[in-house]
Structure formats: C-alpha cells, structure tokens
Specification:
Number of strands: 24
Helix content: 25-40%
Shape: globular
Bound molecules: iron/sulfur cluster
CATH architecture of the largest domain: 4-Layer Sandwich
Number of helices: 19
Strand content: 25-35%
C-alpha cells in the first residue's frame, strides 16, 4: 500500500565492482529496489578510472529509457540510487548519485537515510565557505571528506562518517574503489553479495541479489566501512560505539517480502506478526482478508494461526501507475478507490478480519473499511500487524511530526470509531519484537521501535527541540476533518 498512504522509505542504493556491464547490472538491481523510492534515479559508473553519471526525476524506466542511455555509462563498477524525498525537495539537483570532480580526483556518492545533525553541520560548513548545490543531506559527507586533514582517503572518510549522526547507508565510488558504510545503529539495511564471475555487489535489500544472480555474503554491520577494489573486499570500522537498532518498519512494511535482513526473511517476519496478532485478537469472525500487497504475508499467518480461511476479499489494480504520491488528503482517498476493489462475492454477509500493516493518518483504513462494507461485509474487524504509530521518525522515513499520526492524537477506541470499524486490534510491541525474532542481545531485539514507544536509540541533535514541542501538540484534526 506504499502508494496510497504517506509512509515512505527514503531511498534504495545498489553498487557493483568487477563486472563488464556494471551499469546494466545496477539498473536491474535498482529495478528491484524501486519500491524504496519513485521520485528519481541515477547511476554513476567507473570506466577505467573515469567516472560518468546520469540521473533524472521519475521512475527508473523513465530515467533510463533505452539501452543507449545505459551504454553511455561504461565501466566495470557502478553505484546507483532510487530516491524518495524526505529531506530536500524532489527536483533534479537532489537526485543521486552525486558526481564530484576535483582537481585531484573524483568520486560518486549516494545515500539512504536521514542525518539528525544535518542542519547544524550544514550551517557550520557554509560558514567555512562550503557551497551546497542540493537541499538534501548527502552533500555534507562530501564536504566533510574534502575538509578533513587526515593524510589518507580512508582516514578522511572515517573522520567524516564519525561526524555525521542519524541513519545512513552510503555508497561511494572513486577511481579505484567502491566503499560502503552504515551508521552505528544500522537503521537501514545494507547487504553484500557476490556474482559468479567474482563481482561484488552491495544493495539496500537482498531481493536485488536474486535478480542479478548474486549470492548473499553477509550484511553490513553497524559502524562498518567496507572497501572493494581489484584486490578484493576489506572490512573495517570507523567506530566501536555501535548497537544494532534496525528499523522495525522495514520488516513491517518497507522491505520486499523476498528480502532477508540480518538473517530474518521479511515475509516470514510478517507471517509471524500475523500469527501473533491472531493470538492477541479477541473477536469472532468468518474470514481473513489482507490488504494487498504488504499485508498479505501477515494475513497468511493470521489465518494459519486462527484457523479462519484466508480469502481474497480485496484486489489491487496492478496497472495503476506508480509515478507519484498524491499530496492532498482528498486525492489520497481518490487514489484508494482507483487502486483497490472489494470482492463482493467473497465478503458479502461475512464477518471480515481486515489485516493491514499499519495505520498512519487513518484515511486509507477508513476508505478500505467502507469498501468492504459497500461490498456487503456484515462486520469489519481491523487487525494491524504493528503497534500504534505514535512518534515521528528522524532516521529516514517521511513522518517527522506527530500531527500526521492519528494514533499520536487519538486512542485506539477513537481511531476505531473514526475508521468506522467494528473493532480495532493492534499487535503489541512485545509481540512484534518476538515475531521478528532477530538473533541478538541488543535492546528491543536489535530493532528500532521508536515509532511506537518514542524511545530513540540516539540523541536527536537538531530535531530535539522540534520533537519536544511536538509532544505537546495535540490535535482533534481527524475527528473534525474525517467525520
Ligand atoms: S523511528 Fe520508526 S521508522 Fe524510524 S527508524 Fe525507528 S522504527 Fe524505523
């Protein structure tokens, strides 16, 4: 349901070293990461030490329209990016990878995530004479690398990585190497794979490995910086102060079900969440209906555990263009009607458990409940495969204010009434953590659950004040607007 409600991943990155058609492989890799960003895409390739890049707004297929567009990007190494704008507007200047040419070298850079100290770093760098071309956070790393007095390039990169805070996965392509780095909490997933010819690939999600024929090697760990060159792969760290806190929403909603993050397959995690949700559900029902596509795995788990039939009571129109996110409430609602239909022959007269992954604003859920009722459902019990979303995210998701979250402003009973359901059940926080089941001793089972409990794994730096202010912000916006 990524395209009809406003809860969006910032970006996807893909990189490769050691393949004669590096740009082509990167295109395929990015294609499988398209769900992580649809506003722009780009690739920078390395042709025997000379970097070339192309980027534009739109879907990958709109940016690279034909083979000739890719053929221009020659070379045996490349990095690529699909963008969803959270920080910085969606104009072409913000589309990545960025390609920087200096008197003494060049590099390409792309980034997934959000820096929590970007505002103050930018201010400081501008005061020192730095010029920013884009409004996104990514250029900050370039300026920090260039300003570092460390004698080695690796030293400069490590110093820059230690200065930026928040959630980040960087790919950096120079004349003679590909580098990848993750923040000290590894909020965003990043995995390493290898192709049969020995080429190394790095991707935001492992689903891209299947597509390009690569084997998963391992995930990038918190605080790691990895270098790949003609000699092979070298693992290093830029900090020891690390603690895994991978974004739980990757498992709930963002990542593709065929991806595996830190050893846990996303479909399996969702299915387990559905099973646990069935254990916590307290109502009588006849059938289970998952909201396509992100809630189908949870619906399977719910049905398996409860013994209720899992039916296709909602059908998604596969051919609705996925080119932009509708900006207004009204258009979002229209978007739901275009993209989903309820199947009357399935739901008529039935007590339906409608499974969805999350409730953000509530408008989409309200609309889907109405679709089911219009199709003749006798009762609609909404069961959500995650806890109530009450707090904003500052690590790379586009909800940065509590105003936008219905559960930050209303109790579960009120939300149930607003969306017009007969009952509303959320998965408990413990239930979600156990269902995902990462094999780690880190707090919250190695997950960031700040969206649900407001306990952020890092200081919020530039966002601290704004966050404290938002805690006092209460609004009856939904009651007034929706009812
Ligand atoms: S605050 Fe929420 S969306 Fe952001 S990283 Fe943490 S769990 Fe993910």
């Amino acid at each position: 349901m990524n395209e009809v409600k406003s809860l969006n991943e910032e970006c996807g990155v893909f990189g490769i070293w050691g393949h004669p058609q590096a740009a082509q492989v990167t295109y395929f890799g990015l294609h499988s990461l398209q769900h992580r960003g649809q506003e722009g895409a780009g690739i920078v390739s390395n042709d025997q030490g000379t970097l070339r890049g192309y980027r534009d707004t739109g879907l990958l297929s709109e940016v690279f329209k034909n083979q000739a567009d890719l053929d221009r990007l020659k070379g045996n190494a490349a990095i690529g990016h699909v963008r969803y704008a959270t920080a910085g507007s969606a104009d072409i200047r913000n589309i990545q990878p960025f390609l920087y040419k200096f008197h003494d070298g060049e590099f390409g850079l792309c980034h997934n995530g959000n820096l929590t100290n970007a505002i103050s770093l930018k201010k400081k760098l501008e005061e020192q004479g730095a010029i920013f071309n884009a409004s996104s956070d990514t250029e900050i790393l370039m300026h920090l690398i260039r300003r570092s007095h460390n004698p080695s390039f690796m030293g400069k990169v490590k110093e820059a990585l230690s200065t930026v805070k928040g959630g980040f996965a960087y790919l950096l392509l120079t004349e003679d190497k590909l580098m990848a780095a993750l923040d000290p909490n590894a909020f965003r997933p990043l995995s390493i794979g290898q192709m049969q010819n020995g080429a190394w690939v790095i991707s935001s999600e492992t689903c891209a490995f299947e597509v390009v024929g690569a084997e998963w090697v391992r995930d990038v760990e918190p605080g790691e910086v990895i270098v790949i060159d003609d000699e092979g792969i070298h693992y290093d760290t830029y900090t020891d102060d690390t603690q895994l806190a991978i974004c739980s929403m990757e498992y709930v909603y963002f990542a593709r079900p065929d991806s595996t993050i830190h050893g846990v397959n996303v479909h399996t995690a969702r299915k387990n969440m559905g099973k646990r949700l069935a254990q916590e559900f307290r109502h009588e029902a006849d059938i289970v209906v998952g909201v396509p596509n992100s809630s189908l795995s949870a619906a399977m788990g719910f049905a398996e555990e409860s013994g209720l039939p899992n039916e296709m009571g909602l059908v998604k129109n596969q051919y609705t263009q996925r080119t932009f996110i509708q900006p207004t409430q009204e258009l979002r609602e229209q978007g739901v009607r275009m993209k989903l239909s309820a199947v009357s022959g399935v739901v008529k007269g039935k007590r339906v458990v409608m499974i969805d992954d999350s409730i953000v604003r509530g408008t989409t859920s309200r609309r889907i409940v109405q679709l089911l009722r219009d199709a003749g459902a006798a009762e609609v019990h909404v069961a959500i495969g995650s806890p109530e979303l009450k707090y904003p995210c500052f690590y790379g998701i586009d909800i940065q204010t509590r105003r936008e979250l219905i559960s930050a402003n209303h109790s579960a009973e009120e939300v149930c009434e607003i969306i017009g359901a007969d009952s509303l059940t959320y998965l408990s926080l413990d239930g979600m953590i156990e269902a995902i089941g990462l094999n780690t001793d880190a707090p919250n089972g190695g997950l960031c659950v700040a969206y649900f409990d407001g306990k952020y794994p890092t200081p919020l730096y530039d966002y601290e004040e704004e966050y404290m202010r938002s805690l006092e912000e209460k609004t009856s916006f939904y009651i007034e607007k929706v009812k």
